[in-house]
Amino acid sequence: MKEHIYTIPLSEAVEQGGECLFCTLEKRLEAEAVDYALGASMMEPDSRVVSNEKGFCRRHYAQMAEKNNALSLALVLDTHLNEVRERLAKTKDAATAGKGGLFKKNAGLADAAVKVREMTDSCVICEKLEKTLARYADTFWHLYTTEPDFREKVRSGKGFCLPHFALLLAACEREVPGGKQAACIEELYALEEAQLARLNEEVNWFTKKFDYRFHDAPWGDAKDAPARTMEKVAKFL
After folding, report:
1. In total, how many domains does the chain have?
2. pLDDT per residue over 21-38, tens digit each?
3. Disulfide-capable partner of 20 in 38, 67, 111, 160 (CB 3.0 to 4.6 Å)?
4. Long-range residue pairs from 113-121, CB within 8 A, at least 24 positions apart, any chain
5. What range does the domain containing 212 cover?
6. Is the Cβ–Cβ distance between 185 and 169 less than 8 Å?
7. CB of 128 within 8 A of CB of 51?
């Protein structure tokens, strides 16, 4: 398979295996984005404007805190708080402008609630990951339909988590010619259904290991099956 700079991360992820090659790729991209937020981004005015406005979700704030770079994180929070205070003050004006009565709703208050939620719904890293993974989903189908080696490695792998399975379905509609879509989707579903059945058996065996009758039986691959299943069927927060 011919390697290009935009295909290497996908090729490396499929080589690593795991329950979902896109989860493997996402974790790598996420770690790079967290490092960037506390490093190079601090010196780029355009990036700081975006991070001041959008902020980060709790998950990514927690990951930033784990980097033990307290000063950089505090600088990020300091300038973001300035933005938050300004925007919050504007929502107060809307919330108090329209006084609700006994039979009259305060439309301004509802609008203020929406605007405050918007302040917490955005995350620079989440948005960056979403856009980057969408591009990699397009690249996936390019490789899958043109590179037999890549396609065979995918088909012999463990499938995808459900969120990334949905991502690939959407990308298939964009990237795969209509005449090839049905076959590609059939193969993708066959792989996913087989791997979910495998996980189901492993989780079922995990439960049976708590029965005294199976105490001495080998665990096989079931010991971490619940953790792998949770990653398979749910999205990251």
Report:
1. 1
2. 999 999 999 999 999 999
3. 160
4. 115/87, 115/90, 115/91, 116/88, 116/91, 119/55, 119/84, 119/87, 119/88, 120/55
5. 8-233
6. yes
7. no
